[in-house]
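The record is given unchanged here:
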Amino acid sequence: MAAPNCRGAPIPLTFHPWAVRLASLSMKLYSTPRTRSARCRWVLQELGVHFEAIPVRLSQGDTRFLKLNPYGRVPVLVDGDLVLSASVAICL
């Protein structure tokens, strides 16, 4: 399996040590429409990362989400034990 580089030429995934880890884990992206979570979703899709998009309805008092981020802000990316709640951190 190969990933394209910036010029479109395939690079074997063996050159990307993170690629095996990303492919083996199940990531969850908690998001709402028309927020900065769209940026995170776009980056994850462009990188070809498999993730589960979970819509959050803050106006309806989604308490499951508040356990991940007590401030009630989206996006939140959950990767195993790691929880990232800033869109810039997720995109890096």
In short: Residues 56 and 65 are 7 Å apart (CA to CA). Strands lie at 2-4, 10-12, 27-31, 51-55, 76-79, 82-84. The domain at 27-91 is CATH 3.40.30.10 (Glutaredoxin). The chain has one domain: 27-91.
